[in-house]
Amino acid sequence: MFHEDWWLQAMAGDSLQEVTVSSGGRVVGRLPFSLRRRPGGRTVCEMPVLTHFLGPAIDAGSGSAANRALKQAQITRELLQQLPRTGGFQQRMHRGVEEVMSFQENGFAASVDFTFELHPAEEEFLWKGMRDKTRNMIRRARTLYTVEAIDDAERFAALYAGNLRARGEDSYYPPAEIIRLVGTAQARDQGRVLAARAADGSLVAAIFYVWDRQSAYYLLSTRLPDSDNSAVSLLLWEAICHTNAEGRIFDFDGVSSQGNRVFFTGFGGVIRPRYVVTRQTALYRLADMVTRRCKALLRR
Predict the structure, then answer these.
(1) This prediction's pTM
(2) Which of 11, 41, 135, 211 could bond 216 through an S-S bridge, CB–CB 3.0 to 4.6 Å?
(3) Which ranges of 190-254 would DSSP assign to H, the alpha helix?
(4) Tens digit of each residue's pLDDT (9 = 90 or more) over 143-161
(5) Does residue 182 contact residue 193 with C-beta atoms inside 8 Å?
(6) Sheet strands (E) in 120-259
């Protein structure tokens, strides 16, 4: 999903760059990235905004598993040798990258993040695989809310920003970027906004998820500050059912906290690792530390 040209153009714009490897007149490896400038003149290669997984896309050809693994490692090395000289690099790998030794051999550090996945199955099987608490939340939400699709990207972005303001929080993403992504994905029939509406007509919660041929990804959600997770649980279940009916994997798109883990576990998914690779120069690390300390002082 996140390697598709339309996504990269929508989310990276002029900062989009890419290195490639060709063989026999065709591209067998590509590594897209966003090249950005940070305060102090620092430059960094990173993933475009709202792009949760990326990494190299490689066609290692046919042959034995051993030969494909060696070919993949060689193509990865050739991609990394072409990267521009920057102070920092960070990307979270897609599920196809099962080892990162080629990165480590080229001076990158590797760590691991996690996500939850639900693979296609009979809907009744998925329902029974959830925690009792999660099923009860969904049952309760069905008596309180109706689910509808929202085709207006600006409306979703306004709801997202408004709920954050009500909590006294800033948005990680500028509204214009949310509008651009939601609108583009919906126009391509690769994205959907689902909302929960209360009996008084108010929108209590909404989620946005996107999909490719293999998987759907849960990207954004918002809810009223005084509401609980039941409305979001209902919306997620509706998204899971839609994804399952299309024969796709539903990817919860990362676990960022213990609360996320408890909430996502309730849907019965399996934990999957996603490797994260980083590389920073000593000067970049020093500048980053100074920047963070200055921001902390300003907040105080």
Answers:
(1) 0.88
(2) 211
(3) 230-245
(4) 999 999 999 999 999 999 9
(5) yes
(6) 145-149, 191-198, 203-211, 215-223, 249-251
